[in-house]
Design brief:
Elements (H helix, E strand, L loop, with lengths): L3 H9 L11 E3 L10 E2 L5 E6 L2 E6 L9 E3 L4 E2 L3 H8 L3 E7 L2 E8 L2 E7 L2 H16 L2
Antiparallel strand pairs: 1-2, 1-6, 3-4, 4-5, 7-8, 8-9
Helix pairs in contact: 1-3, 2-3
């Protein structure tokens, strides 16, 4: 799973989350930093409100959390979502020692990004693309 540090870097670089069922996210700075949540049809849903999008927690939760604004959350994209976000620049994922390496092709140049997990390597490549685009 993608770590919070890298997920926060992606968010700061301009990665926009369009919530879908099955997406994982965290709610930092509310004493829930170590918790991971998953959007589902029954328990955690996205609601469009006049004041903006919120994530609603249906039913009883041990934290008595009713809802949280989308911008207060940090998306924890899965490996397949990160690969999809790389689009046509993605070239390969390889084992590299104890970790992984993602290679992308950008403007005819092949670039490599290591990571301790496949998600971290994909995220490093995506972070590079976001920074290069200046988003």
């Amino acid at each position: 799973m993608l770590g919070m540090h890298m997920a926060r870097q992606l968010k700061a670089a301009g990665l926009t989350w369009k919530p879908r069922l099955g997406d994982r996210f965290a709610i930092p700075d509310r004493d829930l930093d170590d918790e991971m949540f998953v959007l589902s049809n029954m328990t955690i849903q996205v609601h469009d409100r006049p004041e903006g999008r919120i994530i609603g927690f249906n039913g009883t939760t041990e934290w008595a959390l009713d809802d949280v604004e989308l911008d207060e959350t940090v998306w924890l994209p899965r490996e397949d979502q990160l690969r999809e976000l790389l689009g046509g620049t993605f070239h390969a994922l390889d084992r590299a020692g104890a970790g992984y390496r993602v290679r992308i092709v950008l403007l005819g140049e092949t670039l490599a990004f290591p990571g301790s997990s496949a998600e971290e390597a994909y995220a490093a490549a995506l972070l590079h693309l976001l920074e290069a685009a200046g988003l």
